[in-house]
Amino acid sequence: MDQALMALLTIVIGVGGCVGYFWASNIVLDKVIFPARGLEAGRNISRANMVRPWLFLFPALAALGLYLAYPVFATAWLSLNRNEAGELVFVGFENYRQMFGEDKFWESLRNNMVWLIVVPAMSTAFGLLAAQLTDRIKWGNIAKSLIFMPMAISFVGASVIWKLIYDTREEGQAQIGLLNAIWLQFEGGIWSTVLVQDLARGGAWIKLFRLIGIAVGAGLIYVALSWALGAATAELPYGKPQFWLQIPFWNNFFLMAVLIWLQTGFAMVILSAALRGVPEDTIEAAIIDGANPFQIFFKVKVPQIMGTIVVVWTTITITVLKVFDIVRAMTGGQQETQVLANYMYDKLFVAVDWGVGSASAMIILLLVTPILVWNVWNARKEMR
Amino acid sequence: MADLVLKNVEKAYGEVKVLKNINLDIKTGELIVFVGPSGCGKSTLLRMIAGLERITGGDFTIDGVRMNDVPPAQRGIAMVFQSYALYPHMTVRDNMSFALKIAKKSQAEIDAAVDKAARILQLTPYLDRLPKALSGGQRQRVAIGRSIVRDPKVYLFDEPLSNLDAALRVATRIEIAQLKEAMPNSTMIYVTHDQVEAMTLASRIVVLAGGGISQVGSPLELYERPENEFVAQFIGSPSMNLMTGEVVGTGSETLIRLDSGGMAKSAIPTQVSDKGMKVKIGVRPEDFVETEGEAIFTGEVEITEALGEVTLLYFKRQGEAAQVVAKLPGIRPELRRQSVKLTADPKKVHLFANGKSLLYR
Questions:
Q1: Lower Cβ count inside 10 Å, N or C end of chain B?
Q2: What is the CATH number of the domain that holds B204?
Q3: Per-10-residue mean pLDDT for chain A, 384 residues long?
Q4: Residues ≥6 apart with Cβ < 8 Å to B335
């Protein structure tokens, strides 16, 4: 109870303090420093108006300077030093040399690259798809709310949810993990369940659905055959519970699914607004010009919202470069799932190696900066 | 070559019918103008012809083929939108060739069509520009060019000039008239709320009001022989004056005693049985002439507007009656606050009973 009261008090003081600062500083500026009376009233008003933006920006600038700008330089300095029993010893680029020699670092970098390609691409694609598909239907807003909801969940919370989805029990026990529960349905291989096994059962609609499934499946089989030669020899362990988060390389993708799930809502909301902004009559002109729905979407709508797509893409890219919580909470970077941010955490707080930790932080900063600049540049262009 | 027939066409949004009983025959080579007050459904009717709005009742055919359920692209129509509706991310050339590319025409064919249209519309120097680098008039020409390249049977214009400034509007109006002249076999349907555009461009005007067609006819027919009070007042500016009265003399000419005390003579014939009928007479402001003798209307001028060639006189209202307006030749500001007696040629005096013209009985 005490803690709740403290929290409430903190909020009141914080918000009240902000309001108080703006109110009081404004009064002081207008009444004391540049009063709007006397001979210089006009000049004082314009001078006060010149000062006012800086006055109001000051708290934000000071806080950002203290908590953002200073740490950057401090981290850069730390990355050039070694911590020996509490003493900083300057070692130049030794920390970097050591880091570049570690396999785990290169694994993080490689994994980050895969994350960087897969997550923004999938999130933006799914977001765009959801935005377009929910645009004109009655329950579109409900669907959108559902897709957007994960945005309200913290990364760690999402990780816990997905850990349950990937959960694995001993063979023979009831599987509480959703993915394994599905996996176990494919006892005789995936096609056995989708196509053949249950065709005889179920009502007319289900039968029709399965028949369509067979037709689609037949098409897919043809595509699959080209891959099959290699894959056919590989025996997939159908019917056995899998330790999803321990399958090397592929476990990365199971982690990415969490972030894609979280970010699709963000992409959808922004892109949905952008799609609404596409002038209706350009779409009607395209209809009269004979374009089919796909051509309208890809040749008329998407090019018109390309700027927004780029902003969404780069914004998600930055989130991805910083990804930490999901990996920390789900695998801790084990089984080849290490990423840079978690590598930094391991070095800084687990191995207490400030030097290498700071060096890896600098690498992340180096990677984020160009994307950030591009993102801001694009966002400003969109606003004009 | 395209004959359009609309038969009992209607449009309903749920229970509400916004258009009903639309019957219209449009022949090849005509330039039909839809006019009407805002909300009368003129744009909706055009969009139904285009296929952008579903036709909820009746039949619409082009050259005898029923079009109700044919997708817009296969109706052989092209449309020019009020807001131009150019694709902002495509150059002028790409804008004009989009439809042909979709139709999978050969590159040589596309180039030929685009170059020809660009030449007609003087857009050749701008072919590689984006729409945002063009002026309003040029954008509208690109929109027209986009229609021309498709070589449609029917051109549809949805208030194409309303986004242009006054001077450009006149110039573009003339360009559209010349375009029509150059393509005598094309059928055009043009929606506007500007009656000057309607009067100057149309071969026939369709006046829409209250969800139906009020009258169809050539511009001069509508001006000289309006079928009803609505058309009488809608065509012409300022609108026709309507005054209530009673038939007192019948025959090849009709004599009306007006409630305001004046006497009017109309060239519209009536029968003896019409004596005592309550009617409204209609006189256009420009048909009034000053008189010393018997007057249709006598009143005090409240405001004068001297426009140079003519002077508009706005008379003081008398009771419930609408304000009477007269348009006299020359510059006459001295008439302000004066009492003026007006009459008109009996051939120019229209007669309406229950809103309908007695000429069409």
A1: N
A2: 3.40.50.300
A3: 88 92 90 81 86 90 91 90 78 86 87 88 92 86 88 87 85 78 69 51 65 75 66 64 78 88 91 91 92 91 91 88 85 82 87 86 88 85 74
A4: B301, B304, B311, B313, B328
B47 and B155 in a single domain? The answer is yes
| Spatial contact of B233 and B240, defined as CB atoms under 8 Å apart | yes
Strand B278-283 to B16-26 pairing: unpaired
Chain A interface, Cβ < 8 Å to B: 279, 281-282, 284-291, 295, 299-300, 303-304, 306
Q: Residues 6 or more apart from A161 whose CB is under 8 A from it? A: A153
Are B217 and B261 part of one and the same domain? no
Give CA–CA dist A247/A234, Å, rounded: 15
In chain B, the residue whose alpha carbon lies closest to the alpha carbon of A304 is B89
CB B34 within 8 A of CB B84: no
CB contact under 8 A, B85 and A287: no
Q: Cβ of B146 and A285 within 8 Å?
A: yes
Q: What is the CATH number of domain A104-184+240-383?
A: 1.10.3720.10
Question: Which of B87, B148, B189, B191 to mutate to probe the A interface, most A CBs <10 Å?
Answer: B87
Q: What is the CATH number of the domain that holds B283?
A: 2.40.50.140
Give the residue numbers spanning the domain of B229: 4-234
Same domain, B199 and B251: no
Contact between A131 and A277 (Cβ < 8 Å): no
Per-residue pLDDT of A195-223, as tens digits, reads: 555 545 556 666 677 677 777 777 777 76
| Residues B160 and B31 placed together within one structural domain of the fold | yes
Residues B167 and B227 in one domain: yes
B87 with A285: Cβ contact below 8 A: yes
Q: Say if pTM beats, i.e. exceeds, 0.95.
A: no
Give me the interface pTM, i.e. the ipTM.
Answer: 0.83
* Same structural domain, B186 and B284: no
| Closest residue, chain A, to B78 (C-alpha) | A288
Please tell me whether residues B252 and B163 are part of one structural domain.
no
B291 and B314 belong to one structural domain: yes
Query: Residue A94 CA to chain centroid, in angstroms?
Result: 33
Q: Do A288 and B52 touch (CB under 8 A)?
A: yes
